[in-house]
Amino acid sequence: MAEGRGEPGRTLASLARAITRCRRCPELRAYCSRIAAEKRRAFRQWRYWGRPVPGFGDERAPIVIVGLAPAAHGANRTGRMFTGDRSGGFLYAGLHRTGLANQVQSTHRGDGLELGGVYITAALRCAPPGNRPTAEQAANCRSYLVRELQALRPAVIVALGQIAWNASLAALGEAGVELPRPRPRFAHGQEVPVGGITLLGCYHVSQQNTFTGRLTAPMLEAVLRRARAIGQG
């Protein structure tokens, strides 16, 4: 990748500020602002974040987890990826059981959550209606993921779902990494070397997967344990 590790904390902090000010997709900004104003009844007392959501975690992490996008009443409310919704509850429980998080759940920023060896981000930084981003919206957001990967230089990327998988490959390509041909397709448990990075596929931790049993806790933990083993060299 073009950028070295250097001082990733400074780079990531600057990038986070740029992300929160982003207005590349006016339609998504309008949607997220409307959700933040209307709110869900259960969160009526919350002051919603309502802005693009930056990544967060261990700034020296060998593992990067890439999700799809903030949830409308999850990270769009709390301002932190996978925080405050059931998908995040499933993910953080798995991270805790595999020794990558210090607590089993995350409800809000400042709740004491600490990640060890893991950085969490997403393909998109704004909640898209129906969790279905357009190709243009994904392209607009891609440079942020590129810059995160350049700063972190991870050993392994865990892509939660096909959109995150494709976004990770596209970002690696834009970062100057030679991609395998033919381009590998997403599958749960798929493990592909891309340059010096291992790309791991995992079903997304959404309720449509976890409630139906398509993704179980042991399945998620197996992927996370494999990522940790790779990250430890």
Q: Could you please describe the fold and organization of this structure?
A:
This protein is an alpha/beta fold and 233 residues long. The protein has helices spanning 8-20, 26-38, 75-78, 86-97, 135-152, 162-174, 207-210, 217-231, and strands at 56-57, 63-67, 118-122, 156-160, 191-194, 197-202. A six-stranded mixed sheet has the order 1-3-2-4-6-5, with helices on both faces. The longest helix has 18 residues, at 135-152.
At the first level of CATH, the class is Alpha Beta
Number of domains: 1
CATH domain fold name: Uracil-DNA Glycosylase, subunit E
Distance between the termini: 19 Å
Stretches where pLDDT is under 50 for at least 5 consecutive residues are none
Strand order of the largest sheet: 1-3-2-4-6-5
- Name the shape in a single word: globular
The CATH architecture would be 3-Layer(aba) Sandwich
Give the radius of gyration.
16 Å
Going by CATH, the homologous superfamily would be: Uracil-DNA glycosylase-like domain
Report the biggest beta sheet as strand number plus sense, adding barrel if it closes: 6 strands, mixed
- Overall mean pLDDT stands at 95
